[in-house]
Amino acid sequence: MRKINSVLFKTVFLLLALCIVTTTAMADDDDDDFYVKPSITAEQAVSAVKDTLPKLTAGKSFVKRGEHGKKKLEVPLVLDGRIVSKIKLDPASGEVLTRGQRVPVRNVTVSQELTTKIVRQTIPKLEVASVRLGEHGEWKVDLTLNKAVVACVSVRGIDGYILPDRETTRDAAIY
């Protein structure tokens, strides 16, 4: 019986050691598999966004339904037929919201025509503010209205191409 316990203990110990070695060997230490070092500077990314600001147009507004029936009103910013960002509005008043600002509203009282008009009037007032590097080597350029960040545009770090906003494109198609 003692010999069986000893063999069993050695087998379990060997399997445990093998698992640790295998797990360590398979661990992915490099989380930056998709990171591409940008070849354009932050200033060039800002310049690319500044050049596109006059070409931005307001897309068709849509209402997202959140937790507990709360609604969010968003208007896409469109460049050459592609949605590149969004501006959020207060569903009750139509006021432009800063990024991260939430207004818990259950009913949208602002018409779609009014939201589009508000964003059309807002676009010429947008200014480029800060820039930061994104997860995959793209530049994130913040757009401000009265010194408050209201939108963000992504610029490909390789060539300065304005990237589409996939999340907003998906949301606009769903809602």
Description:
There is one protein chain. With 175 residues, this protein is an alpha+beta fold. It folds into two domains: 1-29; 42-174, no CATH class. It has four helices and seven strands, in the order ααββββαβββα. The protein has helices at residues 2-26, 42-52, 112-122, 166-174, and strands at residues 57-58, 62-65, 71-79, 82-89, 127-133, 139-145, 148-155. The strands form two sheets. Strands 1, 2, 3 and 4 form a four-stranded antiparallel beta sheet that branches. Strands 5-6-7 form a three-stranded antiparallel beta sheet, with helices on one face. The longest helix has 25 residues, at 2-26. The model has no long low-confidence stretch (mean pLDDT 87).
